[in-house]
Amino acid sequence: MGVELWHEAELLAADAVGDVIEHWGFRKVLGRVWTVLYLSGETLPAVDIADRLSMSAGSVSTTLTELQRWAVVKRVWKPGERREYFEAETDFWKMISKVIAERERFVARSVRDRLESAAELLGRGRDAGSKARLERVQRLLAFTNVAEKMIDTFVASRRADFGSFGDLLSLPRGITQRLRRA
Amino acid sequence: MGVELWHEAELLAADAVGDVIEHWGFRKVLGRVWTVLYLSGETLPAVDIADRLSMSAGSVSTTLTELQRWAVVKRVWKPGERREYFEAETDFWKMISKVIAERERFVARSVRDRLESAAELLGRGRDAGSKARLERVQRLLAFTNVAEKMIDTFVASRRADFGSFGDLLSLPRGITQRLRRA
DNA sequence: CACATCGTTCAGATTTTTCTGAAAGTTCGG
DNA sequence: CCGAACTTTCAGAAAAATCTGAACGATGTG
What we know:
The structure is a homodimer of 182-residue chains. With 182 residues, the first copy, chain A, is mainly alpha-helical. Chain A has seven helices and three strands. In chain A, 69% of the residues lie in helices and 5% in strands. In chain A, a hairpin with an 8-residue loop joins β2 (73-76) and β3 (85-88). Mean pLDDT of chain A is 86; it is low at 160-182. Chain A binds a DNA duplex (30 and 30 nucleotides) through α4.
């Protein structure tokens, strides 16, 4: 009875986080699995996750591997225990920072490179069409460079100045109430 | 001949932008179509876009409609002309601001609501499991609220302070060189 | 008014993503 | 060395996203 109560809440939260994560371009399950681990507050074996989220063992395995790749879940070996346990990273800041560092930066670079190729091609053209387009590709490049610099700064400092809220990300306890209607 | 040169560059750039856009959770074509319009520097009829990107008329139509919904492309009626023309929004800042305002804010709210429901459920539980989870759901909520506040501030000011690069987003000409290796 | 030119819509086809379940791999106790 | 308890891998199934093409609607033209 009591168990069913928090289980329902857990699914609700897991699904909500799943949506955010999907919005960031990952699969929903990644968010769900992380949330179950996070909410449990302790390490869990893969089977427990499969049970709670009604997933197949294979899917859980794949998902956990991917979560580890993003350093969002850690594998914990317990001496004497046959099975392995998994633990959620709890530092939101660290997680976001990691994702931005790896993913966003990669995309930004890849795009800049291609835009530069395009600019190079257009630079060769003598016709009006090429000239007109070159100028606009350069604007795109300028924008890309700004974005790239922002990302680098963000990642390097691990604490870019988003307005004045940066500090809150390290989540002091009990702040929920104050923020709720702030 | 000359035409083929810039056409190739155009496709290259369009594809690069398409990838960024896909990374943001939209379809690649949205980025491609916008880019073709942006680079052309003038208004274009739907057919031209279909030709340049080898898309079906239907797909172009759907895509243009969606781009208009995001205020990233405008429809332009030319007196005396039978067909309609389309024009790309060129203000990157305005576009991003719009997307964040509509999309991110929506997700943030939806997630917060669901997390609050979960917290409410957990608050009823008397068992240890519920209590332990409640605390963590509240941390998620605190984080969500911070994110929401950031988004609101960003959108309200239309110029949040991302490091010290905010100003550059309005792209003064010729800045490309300076930034390239800065 | 019949015709020609476009844009829109949407059912069905195609492609891509994601999941499942079974087989194979690993580790440990006996 | 065998069997039990787990995990990983991956081919094929299932589901989701995306695109095409044809039918239709609208608008202007002769």
